[in-house]
Amino acid sequence: MNFNHSAIESLRERSIVTLKKNWREGFTVPSANLYPFQWLWDSGFVSMGWSLIDKYKARLELETLFGAQWENGMIPHIIFHNDSPEKQYFPDAKFHGSEASDLSPKHVKTTGMTQPPVLGFVLEFLFENEIDKQKYLDFYRSAVKSVFRFHQYLYQNRDPKNEGLVYIRHNWESGTDNCAVWDSVWARYSAPTYDFVRKDTLHVDQSQRPTKKDYNYYMNLIELSRNCGYDEQKMYEILPFLIQDPLFNSILAKSNQCLSRLSNALDLPELSVQFDEWYAKTAHGINTKLFDDVLGQYTYFDLKNNVQISEPTAMGFAPLFAGIASEERANKMAELILSKHFLGENLDGYLCPSLGYSSSAFDPVRYWRGPIWPHINWLLAIGFKQYGFLEIAEKLRNDIIELSVKKGFYEYFSPIKSEEFKIGYGGEDFSWTAAILLLIME
Ligand code: 9WN
Hints:
By secondary structure, the chain is mainly alpha-helical. It is built from 17 helices and 9 strands. α2 runs antiparallel to α3 and α5 runs parallel beside α11. The longest helix is centred in the middle third of the chain and has 22 residues. The structure holds (2R)-2-(alpha-D-glucopyranosyloxy)-3-hydroxypropanoic acid.
């Protein structure tokens, strides 16, 4: 599909309208009805989008996020800025019960978990796009220090074997909620059946969301964590879900690398040295523990059960984004993404399905089990481009533009090109879809 100047212009206009529509007082909701609060990694991507059209809002978005940082440095995954939309979303602030920990903020409720640490590369992007850098040095210095505390929290509390790989302790921390990789974790135990009313399925068809059975596991992990008072050591001892995730760790590595450069630019050399050390350590951990030679990409490690879990996923290409894969591994991954595992039997699909076609759990419309996600394409495009795979990068970028033009600003899209899947899926008028479009049309 060719995009002429006026098509690109109208896409840009629509992106701006979407972001403005989803702006609240000091932050952006991911999607007005489905997700009415502030989410960590959404805010990061959205803030980069804002920085191209309204730099004040870009900074304020992050400032609001830092305002909810826990005393131990954790930046929470959801910040429940107000109570009323709770009717729209479950599990609500009460179920998460952040007040169970003395370390949670007193002025606002949050969840007791985090999300992929995107803020490092986000801050560098914002800083590079500032016109008057001198004017905002205080903002950036303070922001870098907040993210430093966040990363320090991750390394001190989530890397028990000192491998440079931090673990996630809830599937929502991955950002890729019902990823097929967790199925083997759930298969090892049964979660209680909770009596609750889901709100997500009021907004989106059940077939596009995780199953009710999956939700019992999600709720159970929250309940167990809350009962530990969100004490990291206690959670480490009892939680059945402790995963070293290639996307989360690659994003952490990339953020460390960006923050090292940014700290130098801000005259914070001692922080830069630490970010460099963390980058090297995590790169080493990812390379020594997470690559699966048979699959030809990076994969997951279940720390609780001491076993590698291999599924073909979009997330398994993320180490390219952080520049930590060798040329040889990058070549293998380029071959894999262009194979029937990711393009489908006829090699004619859109890139990049969140789960490969060859997985038995593949489902083109069910959330993280097949659909394409715009922000994942954005970071994979950067990754493949860095290694010289320009055509793959172009396709990742163009497919998102084509899908948004044809189907709208949806949360996710089917990778299969056919009449059967002519619509977009999940939430509509989605903030990071708008932000990512602004970024890739730059
Ligand atoms: C739980 C907000 C979030 C994203 C996640 C996405 C989805 C939430 C949910 O929406 O997760 O965090 O209720 O399904 O999976 O990546 O941050 O857009």
